């Protein structure tokens, strides 16, 4: 398309971008804003980032194996627990009633840390950064996959940390912490992550 054609198309693209944003169509917002040269508002970028993290967590339930007798067997739900206050809670809630490896997913926020050991996956919110050492201590030896976007989470003893670099969400995996609990991680997951100690 020549410059004149693009110039005529820009007003339409800008209107489409605004309509998509109001409708909550985040993927369309990102694409059309990139084409039209419109910077993303921080709230849109944040919403998209939460959707990406939620998609990752869903895939963790498919690429991590819990040993027999742990985290439930057969058709018992895989519990994804949210520790603390986090905007990802709403997006993660959409995973409820979906399945992973034939097991239903149950997403819930927990208020009492005494029950965190009954979770299959524990997403630890940034609001709990000060309590992180005690939370990880409570989960020491428990087969609960710990996930967070707290800075240097994997280096601090967590299992899978989200790191945002250049506007992209990347993974850091503490393989030693995972193996110490008896959980098994698929090679496919390791291929897209950076392994840290």
Would you write up a description of this structure?
The protein is of the alpha/beta class and 197 residues long. Helices cover 40% and strands 22% of the residues. It has 7 helices and 10 strands. It has helices at residues 3-23, 26-36, 42-63, 88-93, 132-138, 175-180, 187-191, and strands spanning 64-65, 78-83, 99-100, 103-110, 121-124, 145-148, 160-165, 168-173, 184-185, 193-195. The strands form 2 sheets. It has an 8-stranded mixed sheet. Helix 1 (3-23) runs antiparallel to helix 2. The longest helix is centred in the first third of the chain and has 22 residues, at 42-63. The model is unreliable at 1-10 and 20-44 (pLDDT under 50).
Q: How would you summarize this macromolecular structure in one to three sentences?
A:
With 197 residues, the chain is of the alpha/beta class. Helices cover 40% and strands 22% of the residues.
